[in-house]
Amino acid sequence: MRWDSLRLIEPEVDEATGEAMPLTLFDRGAVTRRFDTPEFRGITFYEVHARTIINRVPAASRMPFRWTINPYRGCSHACTYCLAGDTPILMADGRTKPLAKVQVGDEIYGTVREGRYRRYVKTPVLAHWATTKPAYRIVLEDGTELVASGDHRFLTERGWKHVTSAGSGSGQRPHLTPNNHLIGTGRFAEPPPDSADYRTGYLCGMIRGDASLGSCHYPDGSVHRFRLALADLDALDRARRYLADLGIATTEFDFPTAPGRRPMRAIRTSAGAAVAAVQELIRWPAAPTVGWRQGFLAGIFDAEGSNGRNVIRIANRDQVIIKQVTQALSGFGFDYVVEDHGRANNLCHVRIRGGLRETLRFLHSVDPAIERKRSIAGMAVKSKARLRVVAVEPMGLEVPMFDITTGTGDLIADGVISHNCFARNTHTYLDFDAGRDFDSRIVVKVNAAERLRRELAGPSWRGEQIAMGTNVDCYQRAEGRYQLMRGILTALRDARNPYSILTKGSLILRDLDLLTESAQVTDIGLAVSVGFVDEDLWRSVESGTPSPRKRLEVCATFADAGLGCTVLMAPILPYLTDSPDQLERSVRAIAAAGAHRIVPIVLHLRPGAREWYLRWLGEQHPSLLPAYEQLYARGSYAPKWYTERVTGLVRELAQRHRLVA
């Protein structure tokens, strides 16, 4: 189900009447809480009173049960990755904005893998939140300094790496070390101040590059004309505004164009004093200032420049203008070449060298107005920037930090590709939830036990099996504080209602007494999910969950208590954990833990989960992408021939190890 501001987008249907239920999910408003403890820092809990607690599973689902209970929406298993609030983020208009000021609904740049390359794409900001965490400074060879939390991740030449490690031994995670190289273009240039010199320089470049300006004198009088016609209204609006601030009034009109050409607008004036003021305005300065040169480069680029394939070019036939362009570029340290094409009209191009790194430095340091010329969408992520990690230093203090959720799962933070937290459920594979249940916003149904008792006692309830833990883990970290499951299990025990629980957490052992009591009066099913036992792969794809070894220890404890435990061998990852040797290792470990039954489930990729998993696959195992695109070409599920082959192998192995499958 999709959630938005604690409202259900698609209404549920009342089973008894067949009528649509009200869209509002809860009987009263949510109480918002934050807990200043390490395990919940940065997480907001919305305590709500649910209207219903036993939910019907949609008929279209392939789930082998009809009813479920989800005391939580969202999951606190996952980490929160944070950056300092002043970190500049590359926005979709090509400019930058401090992370603290980024808002939900903004568009920024992220990346996706297409073929051999990762490429820049525009992506929406879906969530934004703040927290306070211990700060680390990451220093790069080119002088870039980033401030981030220890659990933040950056993309390196060896994949995603956290800023620091966590724990030792099996608890370690990939982290930055000196000589790692981050991926990106390097730190962003500071934008120019909006000064009088900058505005004058901009108008000089724009008007000399693209305007018609002059005065004609006749015996019976003089004719004065200034006209600037552009297809890009963002540049036209800037020029008109700058002129108006200088007291030069213009009128705007539709400029006629040939059929098939882009429509254009223009500004003009025929007042003698205004035209004279414009002519004075665009005179070459004897000693151009830094601000004037920044404005001039922005104006001439808007008028005569282009940005294609990571290359900035500025064209003109006037050698005086070409000289002013090259002098300004030299003053800012740009490497360029003048391309003289030997044409009769003397057209030359000034081309900036250095690829995307220098393209972004030019765009940010001069700030042209035309947004389409600032676009880097589709450009490949490759750069010769000196982004070697020099040092990772604890700053010895906690600072306010921020994080966002984006459609691509990443962002460009001060020129390097940075991971962010995005909506996903890597710990549940029976029903992926692609909604807005972010791991920093957990909905807690505090009246779950009370509501459950009423529904179990209702005349319409038939005592059917109820499944728990099939959407989000009911024994996630939040359960350690709210303890909703004890009340739920007590109500189910008292009603002698059959139920099942699936978890990847070890917190379920806290309720071993209630599970044992329930087993004496009704049928219960206990299951842990262990798709594979490869510890390295677990750290890569399921790092927010207990290790496979810990989950199998839960299974062994149930077996020792006389409670049968099923292991959902889920997900089996095609071409990663489906070889006979890998399946044998997993089944052998599951049998050794005392499981009485094994259920193999091949990975299925519903919308939301599909994007997350394929993005991870492209980063970690890019050679497998074509095989996955073929295997899942028709939808969320692997084809029948593949599923039957894999599950058949697991059943053979289960029989060998005396397991029911």
Provide an overview of this structure.
This protein is α+β, with helices and mostly antiparallel strands and 661 residues long. Among the domains are: 83-186 and 383-419, Endonuclease - Pi-scei, Chain A, domain 1 (Beta Complex); 196-374, Homing endonucleases (Endonuclease I-creI, Roll). Helices cover 27% and strands 27% of the residues. It contains 16 helices and 32 strands. The strands form nine sheets. A seven-stranded mixed β-sheet has the order 5-6-28-29-30-31-32. Strands 8, 11, 12, 13 and 24 form a five-stranded antiparallel β-sheet that branches. α4 (290-304) packs across α5 (319-331) and α9 packs parallel to α10 (512-519). Mean pLDDT is 85; it is low at 1-26 and 422-439.
The number of helices is 16
**CATH level-3 fold name of the domain at 196-374:** Endonuclease I-creI
Report the CATH architecture of the domain at 196-374.
Roll
Rg over CA atoms:
31 Å
**Low-pLDDT regions:** 1-26, 422-439
Lateral arrangement of strands in the main beta sheet:
5-6-28-29-30-31-32
User: What percentage of amino acids are in beta strands?
Assistant: 25-35%
Average pLDDT, all residues: 85
Report the end-to-end length measured between terminal Cα atoms.
31 Å
Task: Please identify the top-level CATH class of the domain at 196-374.
Answer: Alpha Beta
Q: Specify the structural class.
A: alpha+beta
Largest sheet: 7 strands, mixed
Tell me the name of the CATH homologous superfamily of the domain at 196-374.
Homing endonucleases
Q: How many runs of DSSP E, i.e. beta strands?
A: 32
Task: Tell me the overall shape.
Answer: elongated
Q: Estimate the helix proportion, in percent.
A: 25-40%
